[in-house]
Amino acid sequence: MRVGLVSDTHGELENLREALRQMTGRLAVEMVVHLGDEWEDAAVFRELPPAVEVLAVPGIYAAEYRNPAVLNRVIREIAGWRVLFTHASSVTASDLPGDPDPEELAARHAVDVVAYGHTHVPSAEERGGVLWVNPGHLKSADKKGHPPGYAVLTFREGEVKAEVFDLRSGEPFLEAVFTKRKITLYAPGVSIRGLLNDTATAQRIWAALPCGGKASLWGEELYFRVPVAADLENGQETVQLGDIGYWPPGQAVCFFFGATPVSAGGEIRPYSPVTVVGRLLDDPRELKQVEDKAPVKIERNWP
Predict the structure, then answer these.
(1) Cβ neighbourhood burial of 244 (10 Å; 0-12, 13-18, 19+)
(2) Largest CB tally within 10 Å, which of 199, 216, 236, 284?
(3) How far apart are CA 126 and CA 111, in angstroms?
């Protein structure tokens, strides 16, 4: 399914109409969402074919934002993804009692995607296991310096692609692909959520799940052998706290929660280069309580 996003149209109705023409034409979106400012501009949606689903949330300065009968933030499930539509990406002084906090929803992974506006700054990035998308604005001239544009979200099983388009050229200038390969690492007394990325190696590991073994510890790295054989892919000699790596010589998945015996100067250095295949979302330092040879396993999804 494809969903078009517009925001901060501020009365530029012809630009809005052109964005809708592009989105419902060659981009074939099935749903269009207005993320506020101006609320009344969403009346243009009535010109769309009945087959196109429409949704609008008000901007924080709109009179409708203070109307309890109007939802200021809407959560929809689309193709298995939980998407929050909101004008502002955080709590504001204009919020009504009961309005959900976008940052809190994202922090506890109650949503997978946050679509927002307000800033006039286009964005498409993954932060903390949540995809944040801002289509920018549709003003012909804007003091923030960004061209008028819109965004399209393409939802597939296990993946959502976000593209932000320049209205004038019709071409995308920002893109992000976010996978939904949720995993949980289990050990005695420990369960830690993570996400696998879209590398070919990560896809092989995902296909092999669930799998388990006995933990091996090397400094503050936990690893165990998995039934996956893969060559090094974009190998990294150092990694970040919470990274999940694949070590080809041992056919092992590695979880990094601190320094290894070869680390120096605050870096985290594997024994030899690894393919980074994902990251842990919960505190990786919980792995300090896992003992060598303890049973460990990786399963799909989160508890």
Answers:
(1) buried
(2) 284
(3) 13
Domain holding 267, by residue range, is 181-300
Name the pTM for this structure.
Answer: 0.79
Number of domains comprising the chain: 2
Q: How far apart are CA 281 and CA 184, in angstroms?
A: 10
pLDDT tier, 303 (very low <50, low <70, confident <90, very high otherwise): confident
pLDDT band at 109 (very low <50, low <70, confident <90, very high): confident
Distance CA 258, CA 248 (A): 21
Closest CA to 7 of 59, 78, 77, 84: 59
Same domain for 185 and 284: yes
Rounded CA-CA distance 244/212 in Å is 15
Q: What is the reported pLDDT for 179?
A: 81
CA–CA dist 143, 213 (Å, integer): 57
